[in-house]
Design brief:
Number of strands: 8
Structural class: alpha/beta
Helix content: 55-70%
Order of helices and strands: EHEHEHEHEHHEHEHHEHHHHHHHH
Low-confidence stretches: 322-328, 352-359
Shape: globular
Distance between the termini: 68 Å
Number of domains: 3
Radius of gyration: 25 Å
CATH class of the largest domain: Alpha Beta
Number of helices: 17
CATH architecture of the largest domain: 3-Layer(aba) Sandwich
Strand order of the largest sheet: 1-6-2-5-4-3
Strand content: 5-15%
Mean pLDDT: 85
Length: about 350
């Protein structure tokens, strides 16, 4: 049985199943869901708790034995099984199917997994878990949804932003400051609850209280590039530079996005189905929705010229810019400016600026 996250509270208030599966990479929301299940388990007299983490050489038979045994004190038991890789292997798959088929009223099983691709969700072991218990998929809160998410969290602690434009500006301010980091957003919302009483929060109160807690993620640059969000792109690159992120890593992330777009565009031109190309290039989830309009916007010429600029930038950040073998051209003196030009070429779908002449 698949259950939406916002329906979990009502479900737990009515009944408690013997098996729960929580999967997804949004750690704050997954942790909160697990905490609610644990609290319901304690209220249901599952007072004994055992935690198993699947690592190399994990003893699956030990887990099966624990799920079939009774506590020495007769307590009902909550067994948590954590599979960080999402890949249980053959022995683990068989064990999970056995656990799904078990019916022990004194055992409540909680299985946690990361994001699972479509093939894994169709596997026999996952299908068995889905059929036997309650499965919660923890979807990430996309950036466009973050202001509403913040508003709902404020409401839960008795606070709200001012109506109209001031309130929208306040919510957007928080969203931009945390840059998609839900844990940071959660902490800032809690801080607002401690600093100010229940009721309406002004923009000035929020501005004074909320710190710049963005943890700029080099791997989220692709979102700004694919949506053509120039302001966010500039802010993220400045943030990564200020935080001391290595230019080599940032350039690599940009180049990977360019290569992915170019491979998919060439594949489509060759008559290959877009869905197949997405799968082959490991494009799924929110990124799949973002990449489709980008493919229509950006030209092959822009991508090829972006790769040419990237090659020169690569030599520059590695201290080899003086030996390109191509006289008459060089990237901008500051590699971060060059990376911005590279990202802009993809964001706007236009070829990168012509190389600057050597003096």
């Amino acid at each position: 049985m698949q259950l939406k996250l916002d329906a979990l509270e009502a479900h737990l208030a009515k009944s408690l199943k013997g098996l729960y599966v929580v999967y997804g990479d949004e750690h704050l929301l997954a942790q909160e869901a697990c905490d609610r299940i644990r609290a319901a388990a304690r209220a249901g007299d599952f007072t004994d708790r055992a935690v198993f983490t699947v690592e190399r050489g994990f003893d699956w038979s030990g887990l099966i034995g624990a799920s079939q045994s009774m506590s020495l004190f007769g307590d009902r038991q909550l067994i948590e099984l954590r599979i960080p890789t999402g890949k249980p292997g053959k022995e683990g798959a068989d064990a999970l199917k056995t656990l799904a088929a078990a019916d022990n009223p004194d055992i409540l099983m909680l299985v946690t997994l990361p994001h699972l691709d479509a093939a894994t969700q169709k596997s026999a072991w996952f299908t068995a878990l889905l059929g036997a218990g309650v499965v919660l998929k923890i979807d990430p809160v996309e950036r466009a949804q973050l202001p509403m998410w913040v508003s709902q969290r404020l409401s839960a602690q008795g606070q709200r932003v001012a109506p109209g434009e001031e309130g929208r500006r306040a919510l957007l301010f928080i969203a931009e400051r945390v840059e998609g980091n839900l844990l940071a957003a959660h902490q800032e919302i809690q801080k607002l609850g401690l600093l100010y009483p229940q009721g309406v929060l002004t923009f000035e109160q929020i501005h004074d209280a909320v710190l710049n807690v963005a943890r700029y993620d080099v791997f989220k640059l692709n979102e700004a590039i694919l949506t053509g969000d120039v302001g966010r792109l500039a802010r993220m690159l400045d943030g990564l530079k200020d935080e001391g992120e290595g230019a080599v890593l940032v350039l690599w992330a940009l180049v990977e996005e360019v290569r992915t777009l170019l491979r998919i565009k060439r594949g489509v031109a060759a008559g290959k189905p877009l869905a197949t190309l997405m799968r082959e290039n490991r494009v799924w989830g929110p990124r799949e929705r973002l990449i489709r309009p980008a493919l229509s916007r950006v030209t092959n010429e822009a991508l090829e010229k972006a790769l040419s600029l990237a090659a020169r930038l690569d030599r520059q950040v590695k201290g080899l810019s003086g030996s390109t073998g191509k006289r008459g051209s060089e990237p901008p003196p500051d590699p971060w400016a060059g990376m911005f030009e590279l990202a802009m070429a993809v964001a706007h779908g236009k070829p990168a600026p012509a190389p600057r002449p050597r003096r």
